[in-house]
Amino acid sequence: LNGHINLQQTYPTLHITLKAQGVDLLQRRTPQPTLYGSALIGGQVAIDGPYNALQLTGNLQLRTGSHIHYIYKDAILASANQIDNVVTFTDFTLQEKATIPTKNKRYASHGFSMDLGITIDPTVDLEIMLGGSGQNTANLQGGGNLNLQYIPASGIRLSGKYTIEAGTLNMNIPLLHVHQMSIRSGSTLQWSGDAANPMLSIVAEDRIRASVTLDGSPQSVLFLTGVSLSNTMDKLGLQFTLTAPESASMQNTLASLSPDERNKLAVALFTTGLYLGEGGTGNLMNTALLGFLQ
Prior knowledge:
Structural class: mainly beta
Number of strands: 14
Order of helices and strands: EEEEEEHHEEEEEEEEHHH
Radius of gyration: 24 Å
Mean pLDDT: 80
Largest sheet: 14 strands, mixed
Shape: elongated
Oligomer: single chain
């Protein structure tokens, strides 16, 4: 901490610089926290100006060794217990969006403003729990550059992109309970204002082998089946994905299907471990199961 306070002017003026190295911002916890863990911060910020128009500026770095857990209590996956909605699942919504105050009354009347650059090291661990039940969670490792602003006229704004390098997505899927998938490297969360409502572009997949008859002979085909999350948190979209990266013949077959047909086959693969499309094991059983999933 370095600087001075000038009390000789009409309005006391501050010129203060704060430097931090490895300070844990989450060391103090509430009894039932929505944000907890360890957030190791380094960097420098400055507080300048008269007390009725203070400006907070600087750059902070969220450093390696940070392990942050965030409970998004208002996130509830719609119709998660209805298999018919899962099969035709093209989106789900948050019943109520978590809000972040857009006006800090204590400072608004004095014209306080803030502009902070935040760099996240790519090895920082982040766990997001959707709904607080522990059944739908995302464990992320990644980094990015964000900008956090506060302006009295518009409130808090967050902008920038967070890129996921590795991680897992645990989803409560009907008939399967909690299913774990690997998040594809390069998936992103991007903010353009509302800190509680980022834009998601996330693909999570699982590797499942199933027997399929191709060119008259049974083969063990590797399928990548998973989910694609898109859109903003308040209008979150979900689609099931299904590809066969090691079999050109099977991939061509999947590409010829409609998105709805691929959705059903992906869900069937999740729930039964069987490929229920043409050439799958047991055509009669396949027809009966797909009829049930419809």
